[in-house]
Each structure stands twice: as structure tokens, then as C-alpha cells.
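Hello support,

Our group uses your service weekly, and this is the first time we've seen a run hang past the timeout. The protein is tRNA:m(4)X modification enzyme TRM13. I'm not sure whether the cause is the sequence or the server load. Input pasted verbatim:
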Amino acid sequence: MMKDASPAAKVRKTDAKQDINSVQRGHSNEVEKNNCIKEAEKENRYSRLKLPSRYREEIGRQAKQLLDYGRLKYMKSKGFNAHLIQYVKWEMTLENIAIIVMPNNT
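Update from on-call engineer: The timeout came from a worker crash unrelated to the input. Re-ran successfully.
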């Protein structure tokens, strides 16, 4: 039959748990701090551009269209039958275009 741990062992175990909790809280606080810094940097970047959010969204949408068109041309150049479809309205999400690619049966 095992004896109960000595009072000193119980204290060490409790101290270890407190140390772990403290480290976890510290890590959580560090993550929150990093997220706040990233958010502030993003806000600062946008304010430096001095562009309205609608205009930034439009530029982003056009850049995405250009990338999708490049992907489409690439797949066609590799012999695939490919086309773009809009599967939801852009008001729902800017990720609203799918590239449908199928082997060319020629």
C-alpha cells in the first residue's frame, strides 16, 4: 500500500501546477499582445494608403480576377478544359470564383 505524499511533495506539485498555469497565461497574454500589434500595423498600413475601404476592396477584387485569369490560362496551356464560375455573389464573400478544370477529351 502506498503512503500519501509528504507535505513537501504536495507543495512542490502545487508549485509546479502554478508555474505551468503562469506560463500558459503568459503565453496567452503574449498571443493577445501580438494580435493587437498586428491589428495596429494593419490599420496603420491602410491609413498610410489614404484610400477608402471601398476602393481598396475594388483593387483587391481586380487583383484576384487577374490571378484567377492567369490560373485559367495556365491550365488551358497545359491542355485542360478550364473555365471560371461565380458560385455566390461578391457581396457574400470575395472568394466567390471557382476554377473548374477537367481533362480535355480530344
